[in-house]
Amino acid sequence: MTTTVSASPFAGLDAERFATHLAQRSYLPAWWIAAKQEAWNEFTSLPMPSRTDENWRFANLSGISLDHYAVPEEPSSRVPHLPNFPHASEIIFSNRQVVGRTGLSQELADQGVIFAPLDEALRDHGDLVRRYFQQHPVNLGGEKFIALNVAFAACGTFLYVPKGVKVDQPFVAQHTVTGEHQSVFPHTIVAIEDGAEASLVEFFVSGDQAAHLASGVNDLHAGQNAQLTYIGAQNWSPDTLSFQANSIHAGRDAQVQCLNVHLGGRQARHESHSRLAGPGAHCDMLALTVANGAQEFDQRTLQTHQAPHTTSDLLYKNALMDTAKTIFSGLIVVDPEAQHTDAYQTNRNLLLSDKAEANSLPGLEIQANDVKCSHGSTSGRVPAEQEFYLQSRGIDPAKAHELIVFGFFEEVLAKLANEHLHAVLSELIKSKFKQS
Length: 436
What we know:
The chain is an alpha/beta fold.
């Protein structure tokens, strides 16, 4: 097909660079090339967020600029070590290139499990990927950045688990970026078929302390009676601008647990939309954030109940230090036919500084008359007696804050069935305090 080249104000993310990216993937299915062209057209036509956009309320829009970012072609030798814990298979990316990989066991391969880089999956299983690609838009205000992701998506993974197959150990992907003003666009597609069980853990990390741009998208699908666990842990460099959009679709009697850990970045926005599409579906939406310095973490969520007897439970916990800022805006939507919905939404903010700022906007939109829904938000300081108790025993204030935050977060971490992942995430959070 012909690629239209037009002027763009974004140095490095311009039409010429996009045309090069597209030409490099001419061997991939025509529908994928067309989707990327459509996404590029959408990206260039959509405006940047403005103060009149309700979906961007409280966000620091002056800090959001896409100027001067480049799209890397070569991997870096500076690749952070993957945390050591038992897992089924791993794929490691550096600057959009695969630099490490362990294959599936023969048993899983014989059962039809697929875990592959996105480009490889498109080449070998194009029709299967197409079945799950962008079927359920997030629709929370980040459409421009989702379009940018699709346009430049190269580093990404495709996980497919056929009906009835149960995988005990998690699959792992690590996305790394290195180099001044380099950008990455991870795109993950997970399809867990009826009666299947699997977990995916993604790490998003920088190989240096330079300024980066990261725009990621996840499409997560759980079929009837399936069980899906997704964990995303990001620890980008302190000067990274990050956007992440998660779409969750749960079929009849499906069980989905989604936990996101936010540590890095100068300004990071995370959007997550869960759809309970079949009767009996359940979704846990969990998040932990440690914010320090002048970091801003912007979290937007939507829990849509589309079928009766569905349940969801959202618990987002933020710990803020220094002049850090968090934004939580969440909405529970219950469709008219979704009778007997049971939905909860809780945002809790622990303020460890008088100058930290936590904004919270929980909400409900209920169109059924036989439901149980609640939402709430709390923001508060650590009780003085707790700090006094720890410091009176010789614990310095920074360590005392770390201990208090771990106690605050344990409610979420305890929900993980995998003790190895519990330990890994605890160590990641500890690393944030060591950097402080």
